[in-house]
UniProtKB/TrEMBL annotation:
Protein name as it appears in the record: MFS transporter, PPP family, 3-phenylpropionic acid transporter
Region (Disordered): 1-49
Acidic residues bias locations: 27-38
Biased composition (Polar residues): 1-26
Record key words, sorted: Cell inner membrane, Cell membrane, Membrane, Transmembrane, Transmembrane helix, Transport
InterPro entries: MFS_assoc_dom, MFS_dom, MFS_trans_sf
TM spans (from-to): 65-85, 91-112, 124-155, 188-207, 214-234, 284-306, 318-341, 361-389, 410-432, 438-457
UniProt cross-references to Pfam families, sorted A to Z: MFS_1_like
Chief location bin: membrane
Compartments (UniProt record): Cell inner membrane
Listed Gene3D superfamilies: MFS general substrate transporter like domains
């Protein structure tokens, strides 16, 4: 699939991007090691301690782990937290999540466009991580429906851009740091899965009863503060060179030559390139299909805790461990991601993931038992690698370099943000009468997504054993 030309978003002429890596093993770039540490792509002007500069991959993995640990402390418990601590009904819970999801429509595109325009993605990332930690700390002490709506929306405004920014930082860093260019996205993103699991184990011992659920925002805030410290060690972070962060346009690795002037990215050019990307019919249908898949995933994740506790009778303290069962299996799916892409191709991997999502929610709607609640966690990883990993990689394959952050921001806005708004708000209204109805509606949304993905990816080229397109 040919990407939109770079020249659409820059004032100078550049080569068209191929959108690689593919999400599998990328072709290893020529190693140009030198005694100044440039074999990792490190900048000789890097002011950080040597043990950090020498480990760009470790710092990147740790950033993903710390970022997703915050999700692990909140998401498995959140609807139960709102119901038991704040006394909200399902319609109100859906509205809280819908309003907060609007942040995914507003914040990610604004900040990712700024990252492409001004080249300060890492500085923005640190700032919004700190803002999210502050908002979580305040959230622990508010009461009343409207205060909950307001403060959680403020948290989401800071939180939602973090994932696309970190993804964009990684994708861009791969293009000039050898140690990262050798590694596929899924092998870094898997550390987010590992980080997600840790709070579930910790909270099993912290949540002694329903009243102790109020501690959740404080635990998440502590993890967000840890994330700020870890993100400062990112290999292209604000301390990595003088006078500031940089992404793209490096000199040849190990050559010792001065960095080439950065192309000037204009806001008009970014908008034009993004519009051209979305005007491609197959890309437009792909985005719509991923939107409906996100609707189904959101309805599931929002009301699954209530199904498990109120219908099945599971104690809230077990939610983290039950969720971790799915996340543990998810690690295996993440590890097998490259193999699955090579065996199935992008098209059938995405179709299989959407079909899995359809069957999972249909089983929960038809048979709300402890066996189904726990057993369906086994297929959770398949849904995640399709909705949260493969979708991002496919768009990155199609995006020009000049809007690499913007592309991830558009995905967060149109797919994650829009899907969460619809899945939360509509799901809350449907669930007010019968929780099973929201799972039937989610099954229909996932089925629509499956058909859309089958059509939009019909021309995707097969993937070779080395991860390149055939």
């Amino acid at each position: 699939m040919t990407a939109t030309g770079r020249s659409a978003a820059t004032e100078s002429t550049g080569n068209e991007s191929t959108g690689e890596p593919t999400g599998n093993e990328s072709t290893e770039p020529e190693d140009a090691g030198s005694e100044d540490g440039s074999e990792t792509g490190a900048d000789p002007a890097d002011r950080r301690p040597g043990w950090i500069r020498a480990r760009p991959l470790a710092a990147t993995r740790a950033s993903y782990a710390a970022l997703y640990a915050v999700d692990g402390a909140m998401l498995p418990f959140f609807s139960v937290f709102l119901a038991f601590v704040h006394g909200l009904d399902t319609a109100q819970i859906g509205m809280v999540l819908a309003v907060s999801s609007a942040a995914a429509v507003i914040a990610p595109p604004a900040l990712t466009v700024a990252a492409d325009r001004y080249g300060r993605a890492e500085t923005l990332f640190l700032f919004i991580l700190a803002a999210s930690a502050i908002a979580l700390s305040v959230f622990a002490f508010v009461g009343g429906y409207w205060w909950v709506v307001f403060v959680y929306a403020a948290f989401s405004l800071a939180r939602e851009p973090t994932r696309p920014l970190l993804d964009g930082i990684f994708f861009a860093s791969q293009r000039h740091i050898t140690a990262l260019a050798r590694v596929s996205y899924h092998k870094v993103r898997i550390w987010g899965t590992v980080g997600y699991m840790v709070p579930g184990v910790l909270l099993y011992f912290v949540l002694t009863d329903r009243h102790s659920l109020w501690l959740l925002p404080l635990v998440a805030a502590g993890l967000a503060i840890l994330g700020v410290a870890v993100a400062a060690m990112l290999p292209t972070g604000p301390l990595a060179g003088a006078p500031g962060a940089r992404i793209g346009g490096p000199a040849r690795e190990g050559s010792g030559e001065p960095e080439q002037p950065r192309e000037t990215v204009t806001l008009t050019g970014v908008a034009r390139a993004a519009g051209a990307l979305l005007r491609v019919p197959s890309t437009a249908v792909f985005v719509v299909a991923m939107f409906w898949l996100q609707v189904a995933v959101t309805a599931y994740s929002t009301f699954y805790p209530l199904m498990a506790t109120e219908v099945v009778g599971l104690s809230p303290r077990w939610l983290g461990l039950v969720t971790n069962l799915g996340v543990l299996v998810e690690i295996a799916y993440m590890a097998a991601f490259g193999w699955l892409v090579r065996r199935l191709g992008w098209r059938w991997l995405m179709v299989l993931g959407a079909a899995t999502a359809t069957v999972r929610v249909a089983l929960l709607a038809a048979f709300p038992t402890i066996g189904v609640v726990v057993g369906t966690q086994v297929v959770h990883g398949m849904v995640i690698i399709v909705s949260m990993v493969a979708g991002r990689v496919i768009l990155d394959r199609r995006a020009p370099d000049a809007i690499r952050h913007t592309t991830q921001g558009l995905y967060a806005m149109l797919v994650l943000g829009g899907g969460r708004i619809v899945g939360s708000a509509f799901g809350g209204l449907v669930a007010s009468d019968d929780l099973s109805r929201v799972f039937w509606a989610a099954a229909l949304a996932a089925l629509v997504a499956m058909l859309g993905l089958a059509w939009s990816l019909r021309d995707e080229r097969p993937v070779a054993a080395d991860g390149s397109s055939l």
